[in-house]
Write a structure and sequence with these properties.
The complex is a heterodimer of chains A (about 1000) and B (about 350).
Chain A lengths: L3 E9 L6 H9 L6 E2 L16 E2 L17 H6 L2 H16 L13 E5 L4 H6 L8 H6 L3 H11 L5 E4 L5 H14 L5 E8 L5 H9 L23 E9 H6 L6 E10 L11 H15 L6 E5 L6 H15 L7 E4 L2 H4 L6 H15 L1 E2 L19 E3 L4 E2 L6 E7 L4 E9 L27 E7 L2 H16 L7 H10 L5 E7 L2 H13 L16 E5 L11 H6 L1 H18 L3 H6 L8 H21 L6 E4 L3 H9 L4 H16 L5 E6 L4 H9 L4 E7 L2 E7 H13 L4 E3 L12 H8 L12 E3 L4 E2 L7 H9 L4 H12 L3 E5 L5 H7 L7 E3 L9 H13 L43 H4 L29 H14 L20 H14 L8 H4 L6 H16 L1
Parallel strand pairs in A: 4-5, 4-6, 9-10, 9-14, 10-12, 18-19, 18-26, 19-24, 26-27
Antiparallel strand pairs in A: 1-7, 1-8, 2-3, 6-7, 8-15, 11-13, 14-15, 16-17, 20-22, 20-23, 21-22, 24-25
Chain B lengths: L5 E9 L5 E2 H8 L3 H7 L4 E2 L14 H16 L8 E6 L9 H8 L7 E5 L4 H14 L4 E8 L16 H9 L3 E8 L7 E10 L8 E3 L14 E3 L1 H23 L8 E3 L5 H10 L6 E2 L3 H4 L6 H12 L5 E8 L4 E9 L1
Parallel strand pairs in B: 4-5, 4-6, 11-12, 11-13
Antiparallel strand pairs in B: 1-7, 1-8, 2-3, 6-7, 8-14, 9-10, 13-14
Helix pairs in contact in B: 1-2, 3-4, 7-8
Classes of the chains: A alpha/beta (about 1000), B alpha/beta (about 350).
Protein name (chain B): 3-oxoacyl-ACP synthase III family protein
Keywords (chain B): Acyltransferase, Cytoplasm, Transferase
Organism (chain B): Streptomyces carpinensis
Chain lengths: ~1000, ~350
């Protein structure tokens, strides 16, 4: 049989809220059985039922908002279904895939659960039936709801074979994967003790342990105790899991299901059928009984059950073997989980193979000698069993009261090749810093700011508990799994300790101000390429060291320049060589840095909506916009630099913190000095002979105007460099129309039909740089949300700020100075992700760091109890139950997406709107204050077609003046509460006219 | 099944915080930077405690867990794959539970043999010696860790002016750190074979060359030296013993001096290591040292050197490591060969 991999799992069992807690409970031999919680029933009312059980702490909590389920529906929903929804999300996350990414896939859902108690309890009398209860009480809906909420289109079914339900579900899921019905399957089961009825049945049948403890294979075994739980595994074909780099807990080699047939009564176990199902499973798995190291047995702890099971196992395993087959049963810890018993057993076995140690079986110390285990090739696990290295085979049994038996064979995950990746180069050269990965971005998301905070706390705790190390793998995993929800957090981190601090700090901060944007649009990014004067020795060297991506792109730019330059500009840049200020190198160096930074960002998924280059920066801008190819631009830049080198170095440039009048006045007296750049209303650059500039500088300083000599060798954009400009005019240039709008500092506006040819580059060099005008046009015409400065030092963002262009914009700089490393680049990506960008995350990490680690799964809201009382034979109507739950938090998803703050202010509600709100509250059970005008029926209020029909009825009875409205007429108006009210308003007016 | 050859799959290290250079240390101690440069020749070291306040920022277990996790990650192994853990240190966080068991917990390792070796500069080699025997006895993979922390023995806050020179030297000589290697039965991709291990205490009737004390309820107030070294004896004997160790390893393996491509010499201090190197009879070998940048980190040293060696070791190359623990004159070393 084709091997199936268990790639993810999640569970909640008594005394164990998750998989990690479950493992701890098993390893310490914990007892999770306790008294009946007050919310269920009063044991004194049922003296015939043992007053003990394995109860979940949080069987009644549900994050209805997360799944957009209306309060009324949540209250009517079978608690089994609610638990499964949480579990499914967390299990999928554990498998290393964001649940949202599987939407629309053929993922299958196979849920085992027995009975149908919720339906009996809530719909016992026809009078109490409602559509929500109807949908909420069917077992089939347990699987179907998962498929619905996650949008899975593969097979979706509930399995009821009594106590073997969930292992049979796993068997069916594996079959569906093998036949190609689905590529991923969720399989498992759930069991909640809603009433003492079944306990009474067990007591009547003599199956209930008087002491309320299930004692499998013990001399004291005298019956079962009931238990609760939910568990799901994520299954994939092994080849797919390996190909996708998913982590594997264990491999499902094969399984079998059969029936007792007409045995000694419908509820009596059948030794021969049990033996047959084990043998069939081994045969299908291609293993022999001597290979099986341990069996997680059904082990109900009833004398008859234990005896028959051991006899059946004995006839299979009493073969010559290296060591006896170890057996145990988790029922000693949790009780009998009925429909969920099989998944509790399977998860235990999978975790044991994963950790390579099998927990001891509780109550094993007084082994029942009648079972003759030693003579049957078996031994009861009285202490934990450390598994030997290499492949280990294990098996799991689960039998149903009605005679449906199942057995599954598991083995350890295939081990990855030893040391595939030698230490990344650089066992650090100096030894000053330990070798470490690149700076990554850790991402987290939640459906509300509060959810984000809750999950920040959980992740901080998890990361802090790990040994310190590089953050790259954690970051990469978080990018893969934790980015799908509307409220986003992102932070740059290199090291896990630093990451834990950042998470802790963020959780304590006001998230609404920093992290928790709710992006409903993508960021619109403009690239501003820095020009002359920003070059410095060793610029971007730390970034080059840190970022493989930047390395690649700077190398590319270097290779493009080298044939024309006859030297490596990269060497000049990175070595800290002061020649970077010489005319021959300064311009090619800046060009290379600009191109490499821009290409790095583009590779990360940051696509500019517009580009603007200041003077020389226009070359890299033109390359980024696709107007020049890299090679052509490299040739032109080197040509420009060479022309410059031949000019006398007698000119200079002066930056002046003033504009207009005072400058014009002084220029009149200095005819050789020109305005080289208009950078803002009070930012001007002058160009000309040094002596003349010095005179102007003195005069301005006397008027308390700040000036600064720019570190340039020539008077650019002035007559002194006109020769260079004229030579450029003669250059043939291969230019094409830009693919991205270019805001030209030559024209001070968006480039239209003008080609970026020789004449353009000549004028661009000779005429003033109209940065202020170009940026003004850019902001006005493309409405960017972010300005990114592309250069080795901040020049343009401060100018933009002073000119007032950046007031409502966020300025980001991926390489803001000599100290900038990969961190600033990562922070830029983090900021853009918070603002709605979905970066190309893999570009941020070296392949060796793109390794998935298991992160703590999503923490759901747990303060919201939807099942506060024993449902009883006559349940209280949902409207009355809901107010007993705690008041909802002010920020919840019922607030419509994309609604600015001010829109939430209540308007004067007209009578029609009020009637609509009343009807919604009545149908959905929402608190009135959450039914806002902007609330959307499907996304925010969790309405479905049944509720829409109910709503129509309620509205019609409240607003008779609307008259008869067909569903077809109504549907287009059913976007939000407001659109419906507007539509009905119109109807009222039409009818009145 | 018994095995002949065991392999080093990967190494990992942990050096806390930023390096403290001689200028910074000289300022804290109130001594001249030149004195450190000349006397010790160590340029920088890391401390897991704040030299200004003495506050302990990271424990030995923190450092060892980090180094161990890095080694596991580099080896592509998970905690369940590791079948034994050996940790060598002179400076455990507590006497019990051992730092070794604390580190096993941090690394998520359960139900496996965990050993702690009380040792000094030879601790890493002792760990290798024990580890190779465990692998030879049938285990498939083990984690070896060595580390030391100095906060109990150095106190920069105390007025350095009143310290005698031999005590002052300790403050510039030592540093904090941890290193780890994963030992496997299978060659893996790197196939760095551990060819030989020398581990011999040769201190019969010899006074200790290094002394580290500890105190408890009854004696914590006594004014005795907690850390002392017999520098004269060390300078005299360690170079000579090192030469003997090289000859012994070569003789055992049948290697000639020209066949050694890399040499990992003892890491007492930059200056001492240079003096020893002058005498070691391996003319064609490249030196792999770390002490100038890390200070003397005791049990971590050979692992820090291994971390530097592994990326440089080419197929067919051989390396020799030598260490002398002067506490009771333990001579130790090992030989590696990459297939």
């Amino acid at each position: 049989m084709e091997d199936i991999a268990i790639v993810g799992l999640d569970c909640a069992f008594p005394g164990a809220a998750g998989a990690e807690a479950y493992w701890d409970l098993l390893m310490r031999g914990g007892d999770a059985v306790g008294g009946v919680p007050a919310r269920r029933w009063d044991p004194d009312d049922f003296p015939a039922v043992p007053g003990a059980g394995g109860f979940l702490d949080d069987a009644d909590v549900f994050d209805a908002d997360f799944f957009s389920v209306s309060p009324r529906e949540a209250a009517a929903m079978d608690p089994h279904h609610r638990l499964l929804l949480h579990c499914a999300w967390r299990a999928l996350e554990d498998s290393g895939r964001p649940p949202g990414d599987l939407a629309g896939s053929d993922t299958g859902v196979f849920v085992g659960m027995m009975g149908g108690e919720w339906g009996r309890l809530t719909m016992g009398s026809p009078a109490s039936a409602t559509p929500q209860l109807g949908a909420g009480s069917s077992n089939g809906m347990a699987a179907n709801r998962i498929s619905y909420h996650f949008n899975f289109t593969g097979p979706s079914l509930a399995v009821d074979t009594a106590c073997s339900s969930s292992l049979v579900a796993v068997h069916l899921a594996a079959g569906a994967l093998r036949t190609g019905e689905c590529d991923t399957a969720l399989a498992g089961g759930v069991n909640v003790l809603l009433s003492p009825s079944l306990g009474l049945v067990y007591a009547q049948m003599g199956l209930a342990a008087p002491d309320g403890r299930c004692k499998p294979f013990s001399a004291d075994a005298d019956g079962i105790v009931r238990g609760e739980g939910v568990g799901l595994v994520v299954l994939r074909r092994l080849v797919d899991a390996v190909a996708d780099g998913q982590r594997i807990y264990a491999v499902l080699r094969g399984s079998a299901v059969n029936q007792d047939g007409r045995s000694n009564g419908v509820t009596a176990p059948n030794r021969w059928s049990q033996q047959a199902v084990v043998q069939a499973a081994y045969e299908r798995s291609g293993i022999t009984p001597d290979q099986v190291a341990f069996i997680e047995a059904h082990g109900t702890g009833t004398v008859l059950g234990d005896t028959i099971e051991c006899a059946a196992l004995g006839s299979v395993h009493a073969v010559p073997r290296p060591a006896p087959c170890a057996i145990g049963s988790v029922k000693g810890n949790l009780g009998h989980l009925e429909g969920a018993a099989g998944i509790a057993a399977l998860i235990k076995a999978a975790l044991a193979l994963h950790h390579r140690v099998v927990p001891a079986s509780r109550f094993a110390d007084r082994e029942n000698p009648q079972l003759k285990l030693a003579g049957r090739g078996m031994r009861l696990l009285k202490s934990p069993l450390r598994l030997p290295p290499g492949e280990t085979v294990a098996a799991v049994s689960s039998f149903g009261m009605g005679g449906t038996n199942s057995h599954a064979v598991l083995s350890t995950a295939p081990r990855a090749a030893l040391s595939a990746s030698p230490a990344p180069a650089g066992a650090s050269v100096t030894g000053a810093t330990p070798r470490s990965g690149e700076t990554g971005v850790f991402t987290l998301s939640g459906d509300t700011p509060e959810a984000l905070r809750r999950n920040l706390v959980a992740q901080a705790e998890d990361v802090a508990g790990r040994p310190r190390g590089d953050a790259a793998r954690l970051c990469w995993s978080s990018n893969r799994i934790k980015t799908g929800l509307p409220y986003r957090f992102a932070v740059a981190a290199r090291d896990s300790a630093e990451l834990a601090d950042a998470l802790r700090k963020a959780a304590a901060e006001d998230l609404s101000a920093t992290a928790a944007h709710r992006p409903w649009a993508r960021p619109v990014v403009a690239f501003l390429f820095t020009g002359q004067g920003s070059a410095h020795a060793g610029m971007t060297a730390p970034l080059y060291r840190d970022s493989p991506l930047y390395r690649r792109h700077l190398d590319e730019a270097d290779a493009a320049l080298a044939p024309y330059l006859g030297a490596s500009v990269r060497e000049v840049i990175l070595s800290g060589d002061e020649r970077v200020h010489e005319p021959a190198f300064a311009q090619p160096a800046l060009f290379a840095v600009g191109c490499a930074l821009a290409r790095t960002l583009v590779a990360l998924g940051v696509t500019p909506a517009a580009v603007l280059g200041h003077s020389l920066g226009e070359y890299a801008a033109a390359v980024t916009a696709g107007a020049l190819d890299l090679d052509e631009a490299a040739r032109l830049v080197v040509r420009r630099a060479a022309l410059l080198r031949d000019l006398p170095e007698d000119g200079g440039m002066l930056a002046v913190r003033a504009g207009g009048e005072p400058v014009a006045e002084l220029l009149a007296a200095e005819p050789e000095v020109r305005i080289a750049a208009v950078n803002g209303p009070s930012d001007t650059v002058l160009s000309g002979p040094r002596e003349a500039l010095s005179r102007i500088g003195q005069a301005l300083r006397a008027r308390n105007v700040d000036t600064r000599n720019l570190p340039v060798t020539h008077a650019f954009h002035a007559p002194q460099t006109a020769l260079m400009a004229e030579a450029l005019r003669e250059e043939p240039v291969r230019a094409t129309a830009p693919a991205v709008p270019v805001f030209s500092t030559r024209y001070g506006r968006m480039l239209r039909e003008e080609p970026m040819d020789g004449a353009y580059w000549a004028d661009q060099a000779a005429l003033p740089v109209l940065f202020d005008a170009a940026l003004g046009a850019l902001v006005a015409e493309t409405s960017p949300t972010h300005l990114l400065e592309i250069g080795p030092r901040p020049q343009l963002l401060p100018l933009a700020g002073r000119a007032g262009h950046a007031a409502a914009l966020e300025g980001l700089h991926p390489a803001p100075g000599p100290e900038a490393t990969g961190r600033e680049l990562a922070e830029t990506v983090a900021a853009l992700h918070r603002a709605g960008l979905d970066p190309v995350w893999e570009a941020l990490y070296a392949p060796g760091h793109r390794v998935m680690v298991r992160l703590r799964p999503y923490v759901f809201r747990s303060d919201h109890h939807f099942w506060d009382r024993r449902p009883g034979p006559a349940p209280a109507p949902a409207e009355q139950r809901y107010p007993e739950t705690r008041s909802p938090e002010p920020q919840s998803p019922a607030q419509p997406e994309g609604t600015p703050e001010h829109a939430r202010e209540p308007r004067e509600p007209g009578p029609v709107l009020a009637a609509v709100v009343d009807a919604v509250v009545e149908v959905g059970g929402h608190p009135r204050e959450r039914v806002l005008r902007e609330a959307r029926f499907y996304e925010d209020l969790g309405f479905d077609s049944v509720m829409i029909m109910q709503l129509k009825g309620r509205v019609e009875s409240r607003l008779p003046q609307v008259g008869e409205v067909s569903v077809q007429e109504l549907l287009p108006a059913l976007r939000s509460v407001g659109t419906l009210a507007d539509f009905l308003d119109d109807m009222v007016m039409v009818n009145a006219a | 099944m018994p095995r002949d050859t065991v392999y080093l799959a990967a190494a990992g290290t942990a050096l806390p915080g930023d390096p403290v250079d001689n200028a910074a240390l000289a300022k804290l101690l109130g001594v001249s930077e030149e004195w450190i440069d000349l006397f010790v020749g160590t340029r920088a070291r890391h401390f897991a405690w704040d030299p200004a306040t003495g506050e302990v920022l990271r424990t030995l277990a923190d450092l060892c867990a980090e180094a161990g996790a890095r080694a596991l990650e580099a080896a592509g192994l998970g905690p369940a794959d590791i079948e034994f853990l050996v940790l060598a240190t002179a400076t455990p966080d507590h006497l019990l539970p051992t730092t070794a068991t604390e580190v096993a917990d941090r690394l998520g390792m359960d139900h496996l043999p965990v050993y702690q070796l009380q040792a000094g500069c030879s601790g890493a080699v002792q760990a290798l010696d024990l580890g190779r025997r465990l692998v030879a006895g049938g285990h498939r993979a083990g984690l070896l860790i060595g580390g030391d922390v100095t906060h109990r023995f150095l106190a920069v806050r105390r007025s350095a002016a009143r310290m005698p020179t031999e005590e002052l030297v300790n403050h510039v000589l030592f540093g904090d750190g941890a290193g780890a290697v994963v030992l496997t039965a299978e060659p893996g991709e790197e196939a760095v074979a551990l060819r030989g291990v020398l581990n011999r205490c040769a201190g019969l009737r010899r006074p200790p060359g290094q002394f580290i004390d500890w105190s408890g309820l009854s004696d914590r107030d006594t004014e005795r030296r907690m850390l002392a070294e017999d520098y004269k004896a060390i300078e005299e004997h360690v170079p000579a013993i090192s030469v003997e160790i090289v000859w012994e390893l070569l003789g055992e393996l049948g290697w000639t001096v020209d066949e050694v491509d890399h040499i990992l010499p003892p890491q007492l201090s930059g200056r001492m290591t240079a003096r020893i190197m002058e005498r070691l009879p391996v003319p064609s070998a490249t030196e792999v040292s770390c002490v100038s940048e890390t200070g003397n980190t005791g049990n971590a040293l050979p692992f820090l050197q291994l971390d530097r060696l592994l990326p440089r070791l080419d197929r067919g190359q051989r390396a020799l490591a030598v260490t002398v623990e002067s506490s009771k004159w333990i001579r130790a070393g090992f030989a590696l060969e990459k297939a």
